[in-house]
Amino acid sequence: MSEQPNPSPAEAAPETPDAPPPAPTPEERIAALEAELAEMKDRWLRAEAEVQNVRNRGKDEVEKARNYAVQKFATDMTEVAENLRRGLDLLPKAEEGEAEIIGKMRGGFEGVERFLLQRLETHGVHRKPAEGQPFDPELHQAMSEAPAPEGVEPGTVLQAWTSAWTLNGRLLKPAMVVVAGKG
Length: 183
Known about the structure:
- By secondary structure, the chain is an alpha+beta fold.
- The protein has four helices and six strands, in the order ααααββββββ.
- It has helices spanning 9-12, 26-68, 71-90, 100-122; strands at residues 125-128, 140-147, 157-160, 164-167, 170-173, 175-181.
- The strands form two sheets. Strands 1-4-5 form a three-stranded antiparallel β-sheet. A three-stranded mixed β-sheet has the order 2-6-3, with no helix packed on it.
- β4 and β5 (170-173) form a beta hairpin.
- α3 runs antiparallel to α4 (100-122).
- The radius of gyration is 40 Å and the shape is elongated.
């Protein structure tokens, strides 16, 4: 008989699918753990950033709600102020020898108007006068155009039917104005 060479143990045992993979070296294990740590740190930082973004959005929404929750009420109160001003404008001008009651009524209504405007300003509602100002589409709504009188620049508000009103810097109600056109 002929002798066959003995196979080496590595050649003799075919690889089986159930065999465990070779154990990683300590350097490979350290590298794998460092990679896993870096991934976890990245995930943690992203989660922290998302939580902070949610906090900031929530804070902004609460602040906006606080500042603008009274918008409808403020709009209604500006109507009251406008009507009070119209009523005051209709009172006869103060004259010498007028009935004392007329002077007291005028003074009382002017005092009520001052108090109302102070209260509105305390809560962030401000009247922006328009007459004589350059037309600003952010604050004014042009209702008509009239020829510019001599010495008045085109684009200047000649007459304001109502004032502009803002709530905490945001336009609440535009002024209705007549604008000077080109000669």
